[in-house]
Amino acid sequence: MSEMPPIIPETPTILGIESSCDETAVALVRGDRTIIAERIASQEAEHAPYGGVVPEIAARAHAERLAPMLEAVMADADMALDDVDAIAATAGPGLIGGVMVGLVSAKALAMALGKPLIAVNHLEGHALSPRLADPDLAFPYMLLLVSGGHCQILLVEGVGKYRRLATTIDDALGEAFDKTAKILGLGYPGGPKVENLALTGDASAVPLPRPLKGSKEPHFSFAGLKSAVLRAYESGEHRDEDIAASFQQAAIDCILDRLGHSLRHVEPPPALVVAGGVAANKAVRSALEGFARTHQMTFTAPPMALCTDNAAMIAWAGCERFHSGQSDPLDFKARPRWPLDPNADKVRGAGVKA
Ligand code: KG4
Ligand code: ZN
Fold it and tell me: Which of 66, 69, 236, 348 makes a 20 to 30 Å CA pair with 142?
């Protein structure tokens, strides 16, 4: 007797799990773009004393929180696990201990429930999340992904079709904000604190470099900018608010220059989308809006809750992949590094993330 082909529901309900950094998150998302329920727990308080995310602390916190959070999400949705069509979890890139907590839990659920597992690349979650918020956002679009762990320009051409146009050769942009905040003694996470302090500063007061501006290479670099911030601070010649404002302006100048570089290789200009924690920065957003206007691109930024790490974006990426009939084997390996574009050139630099 031949096996019946699996029936793929029109509007699948996907459970998403995110645990690749310092947010433990679970969400239930339906194929019609409804976020049925979601919960998220930040570990900010645990990591704050160390000025950054400590991998071991993160993995333990994910392990403690995930199961009760899953229970809570199912209760919020008033659904049973058996009502779910597939289980999606971040399988990398990220801090490997945390990724394994989420992925192994998803495998156990998939096995026990007899449902497909979808191992999601965290970057794919970010890349597709704008389509969860905006049903009219069609492929292709240019995504500026700027978070604590990533700084990339991606051309999103379709589900599974990502062209990496640029990445950082050292620090991510959010990391540069966090390090600047640390130098200025503002605490962690530093991005919002630097932005706030910059409001009262003079962005032209402190001469700071714009690393790789005008370079023939497409990539970003922020390590030199951070070192220059440290020197400016240690010189004792500048007000903290001027350092914050000058840093933020230098970072924005770099972003716009690098976007301009990437845009030269894409015809016609697609929509511009920003995602990642730094998308919360109002000065960055308004600079991107201006850039998009100048280049006749439409500009969208998903709501903040979808820009920063969350599980709805993982469930949604699962939805998009489930829709195209994809799932993954139960022995899928967690990957600390996992470039979204396998054909992307290797870039030089010590701290290249993906
Ligand atoms: O996407 P996200 O929540 O987590 C990942 O890193 O994946 O991003 C967090 C990063 C942190 O580096 C934080 O300092 C930065 O985003 N960030 C900001 C702002 N809000 C968050 N950076 C600049 N300005 C902000 N308002
Ligand atoms: Zn992220």
Answer: 348
